[in-house]
Structure formats: C-alpha cells, structure tokens
Design brief:
170 residues; alpha+beta; Aminopeptidase; seven-stranded mixed beta sheet; 5 helices; 25% strand; globular; acyltransferase activity, transferring groups other than amino-acyl groups; GCN5-related N-acetyltransferase; transferase; Acyl_CoA_acyltransferase; GNAT_dom
C-alpha cells in the first residue's frame, strides 16, 4: 500500500468535495470555497492518497490570529498582515484514519507556518481531544462567539504555538 500527501491541484476539487460531503455533511461548503483556498494558498493545501486514490485533504491558509472566516465563504485573497496559519479543514476517509496521516500533515503545516507564527483552527464534531493531541489549546475569544456558533454549538477556536511540541503519536 502506498500512502502520501501531495500538493492539492485545481483538478482535485471534485475529490475534495466528495470527501467533504462524506466526512462533514453538517458543514456543507461550495466547491468555490475549496477552489478559493487552493488558489490563494497552494503551498498549504494537500491531498492524501492511498494507492493513488483520494483519501483525505487539508486546506490551510495564512490569516489573522484571533479571526476566522465564516463557513462557506470565498475569501478571494489573503488578508494583510497575516500572523497565523489557519487550518480551514482536515478530512480523512475511514481508510486513512490511524495511518499517521493527520500527524504528518500537521507537522508539515507547522514547519511551513514558521513565517506566520502559530497555527489556528475551529474544532467541531467533538474533535477538541484530537486537536489537543496535535498540540492545540482551546482559546477563549469572546469576539468570535457569533462566528463559532455559525459552525456548531460545540465549535472551539484553537491555537497551537509555533513552539508547541510535535503532535502525539497516540
């Protein structure tokens, strides 16, 4: 079995959309959002393959720490003075889980994020324990309450310091 993360291409958007619909049915996003992230931050968007078949993806982009884009929103361009690498989405099909793929891509993103400072994201679907193992901590940002509620009632804004330890292998 061959597994790998590779750069996400515009031609991969239908595969990303199919994976997203399966993994995140409660958080639908238009293909234009996936294409937007790939176009504005190609160095931070990857497709995970198992034997050359799409099995997951990660979309990330520079952003402003303490801020987050609304769900299903095309950005068009990156904001000025980005100071975090925001992980928009990490989704793995069941066949990819337990492979270490998530740990590997978080390590890759952390290395690439050095010019921007910490990593940040919104955790949903009870994923706070997973992201905590990846070195992220819940950060109370009262000004984000309304946007977080648009994601889900359990949505949490999380940050990983650029000096955080490597993700746990658990």
């Amino acid at each position: 079995m061959t597994v790998r993360w590779r750069p996400l291409l515009a031609a991969d958007i239908p595969a990303v959309s199919a994976i997203a619909a399966r993994i995140h049915p409660d958080f639908p996003e238009d293909d234009a959002v996936f294409a937007d992230r790939q176009a504005i931050a190609p160095d931070f968007c990857f497709l995970f393959e198992i034997d050359a078949a799409p099995a997951g993806y990660v979309l990330a982009h520079p952003y402003r720490l303490g801020g987050l884009p609304a769900l299903n929103t095309v950005l068009g361009r990156l904001p000025d003075l980005c100071d975090t690498l925001y992980i928009h989405d990490l989704a793995l099909l069941p066949a990819a889980r337990g492979s270490g793929a998530a740990r590997r891509i978080v390590q890759t993103l952390a290395r690439r994020a050095i010019p921007f400072g910490p990593l940040s994201l919104v955790a949903v679907n009870g994923s706070v324990p997973f992201w905590s193992r990846m070195g992220f901590s819940v950060t109370d940002e009262a000004h984000l309450a309304e946007k977080l509620a648009s994601y889900a009632s359990d949505a949490c804004y999380m940050v990983r310091s650029k000096l955080a330890p490597e993700p746990s292998k658990r």
